[in-house]
Amino acid sequence: MKNVEHIGIAVKELEAAEKLFSSLFQTNPYKRETVESEGVSTLFFQINQTKIELLQSIADDGVIARFIEKKGEGFHHIAFEVEDIVAEMARLKKEGFTLLSETPKPGADNKLVCFLHPKATNGVLIELCQGIKS
Ligand code: CO
């Protein structure tokens, strides 16, 4: 793993959260993107080296909606950039981690992603991501 790529925060109201975080960070999001396949609408902020992803569910029964129902708004996942996501997934599987998908999936912000089950990682949802070279 290379570095923390971004931190994901689950919110109920993306518009309200956008205002709040824009004011907090003194900058506007550099990207907004809906990932239909994941049932989320996202906003990305960049503060120097740090990226923050805000996620709102676009469906009542989406993963983010269910997360907020159980745990409330707030910290959702930490994403690590990897060099080769397929190789990293194979390595982690061998180490006994539970992957939430068998193959990398297209995620927000031009990335291939895979999540690790938080039950096997001390309750922390971890995302692996690899930039898609265009
Ligand atoms: Co993410």
Helix and strand element order:
EHEEEHEHEEE
What is the residue-mean pLDDT, rounded to a whole number? 95
Helical residues, percent: 10-25%
The largest pleated sheet is described as: 8 strands, mixed
pLDDT below 50 for ≥5 consecutive residues: which ranges? none
Heteromolecules bound: cobalt (II) ion
Strand order of the largest sheet: 2-3-4-1-5-8-7-6
State the shape: globular
With helices defined by DSSP (H or I, 4 residues minimum), what is the helix count?
3
Strand content: 35-45%
Q: What structural class do you assign from the helix and strand content? A: alpha+beta
The count of β-strands is 8
The radius of gyration computed from the alpha-carbon positions, rounded to a whole number of angstroms, is: 15 Å
N- and C-termini, Cα separation = 21 Å
Structure description:
23% of the residues lie in helices and 39% in strands. With 134 residues, the chain is an alpha+beta fold. It has an eight-stranded mixed sheet. Strand 2 and strand 3 form a beta hairpin. The chain is globular and about 45 Å long. The protein starts with a strand and ends with a strand. Cobalt (II) ion (CO) binds next to strand 1 and strand 5.
